Amino acid sequence: MKTILLLGAPGAGKGTVAARLAATTPYRHVSTGDMLREAVKAGSPVGLEARAFMERGDLVPDEVILRIVRERIEREGASGAYMFDGFPRTRAQADGLDAMLASFGAKLNGVFLLVVPREVLISRIAGRRVCRQCGAVYHVVNMPTRVEGVCDRCGGPTYQRPDDNEATVANRLDVYERQTRELIDLYRARGILHEVDAAGSPEATRDRIAQVLAAWV
Ligand code: AP5
User: Is 161 annotated as catalytic?
Assistant: First the structure.
């Protein structure tokens, strides 16, 4: 099993780049944010527990996150290649991931830090629209749908995420600084961190990462 993760502030483009990499590489995209939004939509026990944290822009408790990630990997047979997006986000999650991977006889192979200036993050988040049906991600200016409000891929309605309002975004950026940024030093010290300029197009970012992945084989 090979494992990589995409690290970066809210709005850095992790989900957008992960979707493009998943289409062109064997890495399966695992987004804890998407898994939690699905759980909220389904009204499952995890969704009921996570909802208030997400609405505030706070992190969902580590044990919930580690449990849903392990369940997902086990369900899929713990084989092949995985690409985590938005996970881990705390030191406890990073340690939990190491232990989990070790229990599958695997380890973390690489971490890609998407580097984007703060003002770009904010304008990306402010214009984001997501398909309610299939989860495809758009931007009203950078990546608009062909018909306003209608997903190009499945025809479903697009919407603005409830946590993409100004106050919650400010808290999410703050939470990233306080709880997630320290992971950069952790992975740099291990020699597995790759910093990627992600201010350009999603394709340019995807290609930079794909180049590193191709060199591993
Ligand atoms: P999550 O869904 O993971 O949100 P996030 O980390 O805040 O990241 P975003 O989804 O906002 O941004 P992104 O980097 O994926 O950017 P995107 O590709 O969409 O988490 C949401 C919440 O769930 C958290 O606040 C927390 O409560 C909870 N949670 C999730 N994981 C957790 C965990 N591990 N532990 C605890 N709690 C957890 O792009 C953004 C916009 O920019 C889009 O409109 C896109 O079209 C546009 N765009 C992207 N790339 C480009 C580009 N290159 N050029 C132009 N526009 C671009």
Answer: yes
